[in-house]
Amino acid sequence: xxxxxxxxxxxxxxxxxxxxxxxxxxxxxxxxxxxxxxxxxxxxxxxxxxxxxxxxxxxxxxxxxxxxxxxxxxxxxxxxxxxxxxxxxxxxxxxxxxxxxxxxxxxxxxxxxxxxxxxxxxxxxxxxx
Length: 129
What we know:
alpha+beta
């Protein structure tokens, strides 16, 4: 009885299995499974702005605690009208979206942000009416 595949098949199996194994953390990162179901609203002051891959993000000071507000991928965020030139550190922001399921994280995925009186729906299909 053979339990293991012939040695000649192992390199091929590794070629197939390794990329799948390496992509699993990325798939988990880009989904919504890490967020709570209900909408969450956060208000604070922008300390950092990043518009790049894998997605745009803001660091927001909320009463002395820094929150990471993740936006959409850069192309979608820019298509919503928000770019690195749209706001600057020190601007007030309201972020609406889904908070991390991990209460120890100060992190959320925003579907809408409001900066300087302008609203940016980075996930318009998920933004509240």
